[in-house]
Amino acid sequence: MSDWEGVRLHVVTGKGGTGKTTVAAALALALAEGGRKVLLVEVEERQGLAQLFDVPPLPYSERKLAVARGGGDVFGLAVYAREATYEYLDMYYHLGRAGRALDRMGVIEFATTIAPGMRDVLLTGKTYEATRRRRPDQNFVYDAVVLDAPPTGRIVRFLGVNSAVTSLARVGPINRHAAAITDLITSPRTAVHIVTVLEEMPVQETADTVAALEKARIPVGAVVVNQIRRPHLGVRDLAAARRGGLDRFAVATGLRVAGLAGSDALVDQLLTEAKAHADRVALEKQERAAVAVLDRPTYELPRLADGIDLAALYELGAELSAQGAA
Predict the structure, then answer these.
(1) Tens of pLDDT, residues 218-242
(2) Closest CA to 6 of 149, 185, 143, 147
(3) How far apart are CA 59 and CA 57, in angstroms?
């Protein structure tokens, strides 16, 4: 059973370099398992999803990316502020082609640059529309929507922009649209998941983001600890390596048994690497404790030595599913 029953919008954020786009894609695959239909949305105009799933660049329309385990489907959408503006003007002001004429006159660029948060309103608005869209039988088109959101340093401002807009535009379609988006983002139908790695700065930024989201009354989801590296040594050997007390003779003997020349230089190098590894394991233990203090559901994903491809995404999705994320 999923930890997130009733959540329709899964927002995935994280400090740059933690692998948030990879985790968002893996989560979408996990959520789609068993015949469900999931939309994976990106808003940073990087075409990160196309690269991950090894498909051509995504247009401003929904495209099937992958089939999940059990027959579910993952669709992808790359949202561009300019195209979202055309759609917005047509939907709420019935401008049609006139919207593109305004673009040629520079009006749209002016509006999205000068108007406070208008660009983010358009990006979140497209995601909002996908979460509420229904089929003729009144069931939702998508069982869940996963948003590969901006990094943690910008996430609260990005998600909270619609609240600010409602205070500026107090009447009219902009106000109503922004209020509806705010209602979704601050409701139990949304969960913001934060991706981190076990290093001091990402973990601290994760803690700061949890506090900022709670202050903004935006629901905090899980913490996903990515790129976990399992210890290569046992507990006793790790302690010995940290204090420089590993048995040189045992290391040299192990090299000879493996058919390698156990020179003093090679033994010294291995002992140095063992100490660095032990120090890293100790640091990760300390940072894992800091993550635990946040008191959020926590999932751990392994570091994959061969890099990230579609097979790796399926592997990570299965890990998330097994841990209760979907």
Answers:
(1) 999 999 999 998 888 899 998 988 9
(2) 143
(3) 7
Whole-structure pTM value? 0.86
> Band of the pLDDT at 162, cuts 50, 70, 90?
low
Contact (CB, 8 A) for 219 and 191: yes
Poorest-pLDDT segment among 21-25, 87-91, 314-318 = 87-91
CA proximity to 190, closest of 117, 128, 138, 142: 128
Nearest alpha-carbon partner for 308 in 15, 11, 26: 26
**Which alpha helices (DSSP H) does the chain contain, by range?**
20-32, 48-53, 81-93, 98-104, 107-114, 118-132, 152-168, 172-185, 200-215, 235-242, 248-257, 264-293, 310-322
Residue-wise pLDDT tens digits, 289-316:
999 999 999 999 999 988 899 999 999 9
- In the sheet that 37-42 helps form, which strands lie side by side, from edge to edge? 63-67, 73-78, 37-42, 144-148, 9-14, 190-196, 220-228, 298-302
Q: Which string of b and e fits 282-306 if b means at least 16 CB within 10 Å?
A: eebeebeeebeebebbebbbeeeee
At 9, is the secondary structure helix, strand, or coil?
strand
pLDDT digits (tens, 9 = 90+) for 188-210: 999 999 999 999 999 999 999 99
Identity at 158, one-letter amino acid code: F
Q: Which DSSP string do the residues of 283-322 spell out, in sequence order?
A: HHHHHHHHHHHT-S-EEEEE--TT---HHHHHHHHHHHHH
In the numeric block, which tokens belong to residue 95?
A: 């401008």
Q: Give CA angle at 188 (117, 30), nearest 5°.
A: 95
Distance CA 295, CA 238 (A): 28
**Are 223 and 206 a contacting pair, CB within 8 Å?**
yes
E strand or H helix at 14: strand 9-14
Torsion sign over Cα 314, 318, 320, 325? positive
CA–CA distance, 40 with 74 (Å, rounded to integer): 7
Predicted pLDDT of residue 173: 62
